[in-house]
Amino acid sequence: MNHSVVIDIGQVRVGMYVQLDVGWLVHPFLVNNFKITSQKQIQALKGLGLQSVRYVPSKSDVASLPAGPAQPEVAAPEPAEASAPAPAAEAKRSVDAWRYRIRSCEQRFVQVCSDYELLERTAQPSPAQARVVSEELVDSCLAEIDQAKDVVLHLLSEQIPDAAGSHSVNVSVLSLLLGRTLGMAGQPLRNLGLAALLHDVGKQVHPPAWGIHGMNVHQRAEGSAERVRYEMHVGESVAITERMALPADVSHIIAQHHEWADGTGFPLRLVAADLERSGQILCLVNGYDRLCNPLDTSAALTPHEILALLYSQYREKFLPEVLTAFVRMMGVYPPGSLIELNDGRFGLVTSVNSAYPLKPSIMVHDPGAVDGPLLLLELQASPQLGIRRGLNPSRLPRKVLDALLPRQRICYYFEKGSGVGPAKTL
């Protein structure tokens, strides 16, 4: 059994085998467990802001610890048998490129959130300026989408700031992609994007009570002060977009973003025959994001569980072709889902390519891999692998959860799809 010692970051030196207890997007190294071979690696470790790391004497070239405080030994888990990892050099190229792609998506997401906050601040005092910001945001997203034959939707890390506009940005991204999946293009798709971006702007006028949103509004009594105040944001959002002199279709879509096909939505209790498809796209995506990101994170479900919930409890509330297209676009296991592969390993879905929605990219926990317990597998390049089932975090061993770090917040961004190679080691 290998034992590890928790040591101060200042005690780390060349020759030590260290284990990092941080997420796989936080550090620049190929794996979480490795031997220090240079002062450059030590400086990179110190640059992470860590106070301590775990050091494994039995795997190290260092005979003893330097002077300084060290904490008691703890037993490291025994590795289990697993498949052989991919060659390290090839894996490093793949993982470095993957990290760059994710961080690039995160930078764009953060910038869009910042621009959204600007339009929120200007929507009432300067609607013309807010219109310019809104149109530039949507047009930039459409330009990226139009250039891509297929699109890869990525799960972002929790290192991104908890921006106030993240819900509206998430909804905008998914609405544009769903509209595209349903064959929308040109001005109708642009109007959908604008409506998705601005659907909650009226909450600046009447901030709702904490914890209430469109999918749980019926838990408040009809006519109650909380519910009446919440439902007012739809009309306020419509009024603001009208003052922005946006196309009338934008306001019509926003007006329907809480209308359900079974007539139980609000504010007009419309039924399926009265609904526009764009309004239903926004309604479905808005509900999905609210379920993915509840204010009470202790009750959060995984994206796979939420899709199952939409089918089991909310199926009658959405137009069938819209719900079916959404599942086809996201895959049965959307990014952020926890899964078990058909070979028994556990993983976290990180990305879905619109061309291969049933073959996502997965961060797999493989404790037997010599270069570390995490592998990045792209199922479309691994035909022998498949997903056996989706899992709730409570069904996974603690050490697997600690390694995979399932998200408390589900945020997405996209990039142009590209070909993939064989499975790579992280």
Automatic annotation (TrEMBL):
Cited SUPFAM superfamilies: HD-domain/PDEase-like
Location of the HD-GYP domain: 142-342
Region Disordered: start-end pairs: 64-88
Biased composition (Low complexity): 66-88
Family annotation (Gene3D superfamilies): Hypothetical protein af1432
Pfam families: DUF3391, HD_5
Name the record gives this protein: HD-GYP domain-containing protein
